[in-house]
Design a protein that fits this description.
homodimer; 307 residues; alpha/beta; Rossmann fold; 8-stranded mixed beta sheet; 3-stranded parallel beta sheet; 36% helix; globular
Chain lengths: 307, 307
């Protein structure tokens, strides 16, 4: 089969090694990451386990705090105020509703390794890439969307010949998921980098792009009457994140030579996907946990600059 | 029937008159409120109409901007930056999901008359009542919860004999709704004022209170195994906000002499409620629109203080 399967662990490796080297060479850098587990979700527990394992490999000091959800907010506020903590991570879902989004904003932007607080989300949607006018401090990007960007860079969907910021110009990408945590930010990120993105959810298909000739400085969003079946065959890249074991995207819809990426913990592509895809990325989680740590180091640096 | 029905228009009246007098006496005060309507929800259109009408009565300059939801964010950002706009209001739901909460945080805290941005929500949950250490600028409270507090003050559920901040001590209140926009903030507000609150949603019953003898400075939240049927009969006040025309709270569950308040646009109490309740408040919307304007005047003042 000509399809190349790219594993997240393989994409994560150079980032992991670079982080390990940085921490080894600079013994004064001892960033501490605190993770809060306040649910009984096996997917969250697995993600926590991966974080633990990856931090052991890089040398990041990781502490998992298991708490009941009704005292989680107090725990976050204490960690915000604790100078020994440099990064805070919450394993969602906690309440599984809008209260989770409230909690995302309780995490201090100075310690928000997930990049889910409003400041970082707003900057990302508006294609504002730096926190300061001097462009010395890059914004924090939400971890899973960032992991997918890094995967797309690794597999050269990003074209390095093109100017930075426009490197997806000419690419058509479908994303099946429009959650506030992954699908919508990812659509915005890729559109801001020049792609034409079809964002699919259960209700409709939206287009995210920067206009013809990517003339806009940030993406706009456009309503369409298109259906998933219309846009998948047009797409160079199809990214799925449907949280259901029953969902399978029919292989026959895919363009021959498509890049297929799945970030759901369920397998959203059929086994036959490899018969049509040029590149298949079955999962992204291991890149996500290294992006968490990359964001942590960034925030750690910003804190040192301030002091 | 001994039950006293209290109409929102009656509670709103003194606030409306006070606002009108303030604006009449100080012709230099010309606060401008901009409302964004980006849905086809008849309830939202009605709320917009009420805002319009109430602003005409008080003298607040109200402008309704009808926009498509995909350009709403741009509209909000422009209004944030426009010095001629003092208050911004969005008629939700727009997307009907977490993206609405993102939009609530796009509204500048300096113009957020609804009190739905994270800064105000966080302060409310944490019982932080002022924006500054000098206690010169009170926090903005979300409009509908604030309207219900004002109604509870009007009907003397708040006991003025007790110290400010503790005036609900001894009251047991059930709230049937735990949305992030009304039910949960309301439970926190009333618990922070000393009440023992049962917060009911479709999944469970939570207790919000400040501990025995209201010894805590802010409420905590406690899980219970209780059901709605257990807590309604214990409650001095029952507040309903179930957005369904089919839902009716059975009158037989209510304590004789209960205070019954409905903030849903559907009638959540049976017609027989008046046979048991001492006070019945069938709706709160007209108090909400005046609280919007009260928040507007407050924000207008803060802006002038800064300049």
């Amino acid at each position: 089969m000509p399809c190349k399967t790219v594993l997240a662990s393989h994409v994560a490796k150079p980032f992991l090694e670079q982080l390990r080297a940085t921490l080894k060479e600079n013994s004064s850098i001892r960033p501490k990451l605190v993770g809060f587990l306040a649910n009984n979700d096996p997917a969250a527990a697995k993600y926590a386990e991966w974080t633990q394992k990856s931090c052991e490999e890089t040398g990041v000091d990781f502490e998992l705090r298991t708490v009941s959800r009704n005292v989680l907010e107090t725990g976050i506020v204490e960690a915000n105020q604790d100078p020994a903590v440099h990064g805070i991570l919450v394993y969602y879902p906690v309440f599984g509703d809008r209260q989770d989004q409230y909690l995302q904003n309780v995490v201090s932007p100075q310690k928000d390794v997930e990049g889910l607080c409003h400041t970082y989300c707003y900057n990302m949607y508006h294609n504002i890439r730096y926190l300061d006018d001097e462009q010395s401090r890059k914004c924090i990007i939400p971890c899973t969307p960032l992991a997918i960007v890094k995967i797309l860079e690794h597999i050269e969907v990003y074209n390095k010949i093109i100017t930075y910021g426009n490197r997806l110009h000419g690419r058509t990408i479908t994303i099946i998921n429009r959650s506030e945590v992954v699908g919508r930010p990812l659509a915005a990120l890729l559109a801001n980098d020049g792609a034409k993105v079809y964002s699919v959810d259960i209700n409709n298909v939206l287009e995210f792009h920067r206009g013809e000739g990517i003339r806009l400085t940030k993406h706009d969003v456009f309503e369409t009457d298109k259906r998933m079946e219309d846009v998948v065959p047009l797409s160079d890249v199809v990214i799925t994140g449907v949280p259901s074991s029953g969902y399978k995207l029919p292989t026959h819809l895919l363009k021959d030579g498509v890049v297929a990426i799945n970030f759901s913990s369920n397998k959203n592509f059929e086994d036959t996907v490899k018969e049509r895809a040029s590149i298949y990325v079955p999962s992204v989680g291991k890149v996500t946990v290294i992006m968490l740590q990359r964001n942590l180091i960034r925030l750690y640096d910003y804190l040192q600059q301030k002091n």
